[in-house]
Amino acid sequence: MKIISWNVNGIRAGGRKGLLAKLESLNADVICFQETKATEEQVAEVLFGSGYHVEAYAAEKKGYSGTAIISKVAPLSVVRGMAVEEHDNEGRLITADFGDCYVVTAYVPNSKGGLTRLPQRQRWDRDLTAYLQRLDAVKPVVFNGDLNVAHQPIDLANPKSNYNKTPGYSQAEIDGLSHMLQAGFIDSWRHQHPEDVCYSWWSMRSGARERNIGWRLDYQLVSHRLMDQVASTAILTDMHGSDHCPVELVLKA
């Protein structure tokens, strides 16, 4: 089972940049999208003819946020949101039950300039961790998404200048992800690549991608008991079309 996660930074724009051909080349069983910036109907329209079953979740605000899970085999059930009113109006979380495991995707809120949204972000992290623990009590979880945090200094190009100043690298955000890992989940790529420097997001300014001045913001966390089934993980830096690149996890049959 190959699972891809990708912040597409606008799925309609991605469609105009050859998204369907890219999906064919990725050949994944399940693909999780973040920041679709589209209604559920628009997501389905972009992906029409892809051969995938489509489950999308749109924000109430048009052209903002949004997530989707597409799969070659339809999930047994799908849940949108985490049943917390504060968090469930921006289309940020979908859970799909594929029988042996839950696949969850999230587009975690950005704390914004000046960390003005940090208090909400901290509540999101706390509530999301509790939600994932409830799922994990039933069956293993593969949690995918743009988590909008670099967890360790190795996960961004300039840790010293960004620490506690830039959204995505404050101690509160780092602690939020640490708490999630302590609650029973493993950062699958980092587990398999403990010393590697590789990024999944680059600013669109100043040629950051060409110079590889980036951040690792995209993760695939798995339940502890599922890690032995992870055959491989990868950050697909050669795949363009967004300011993020896809990340990949393959589970053994």
**Quick one: CATH superfamily?**
Endonuclease/exonuclease/phosphatase
CATH class assignment: Alpha Beta
| Beta-strand percentage range | 25-35%
- How many domains? The number is 1
Mean pLDDT across residues? 97
Number of helices: 8
Listing every helix as H and every strand as E from the N terminus to the C terminus, the arrangement reads EHHEHEEEEEHEHHEHEHEEEE
What are the segments in which pLDDT stays under 50 over at least 5 consecutive residues?
A: none
Q: List the strand order in the largest sheet.
A: 3-4-2-1-14-13
Shape: globular
- Please give the largest β-sheet: 6 strands, mixed
What fold name stands as the CATH topology?
Deoxyribonuclease I, Chain A
Number of strands: 14
Structural class by helix and strand composition? alpha+beta
Name the CATH architecture. 4-Layer Sandwich
**What's the end-to-end separation, in Å?**
7 Å
Roughly how much helix do the residues carry, as a percent range?
25-40%
Radius of gyration: 17 Å
